[in-house]
What does this fold into?
Amino acid sequence: MKNVKVLGSGCANCQTTARLIEETARELGVEIELEKVEETARIMSYGVMSTPGVVIDGTVVHAGGVPDRKTIERWLRA
It folds into this structure.
């Protein structure tokens, strides 16, 4: 199971990112634990200055803007 965190204030882009990750994981049959991190101090602790940010298994893989499905698939298959 992959641990996935979506970092952001809860804005529309952050919600879209979380939804895309959930949908893509379900389509691929990959089990994930999804956490939404909205506290500014926790977001900054990852070094992310633009949201949404995505952290998978402790590694920041994305910051700023909504990632596309192909990119999400690559993260989840790695």
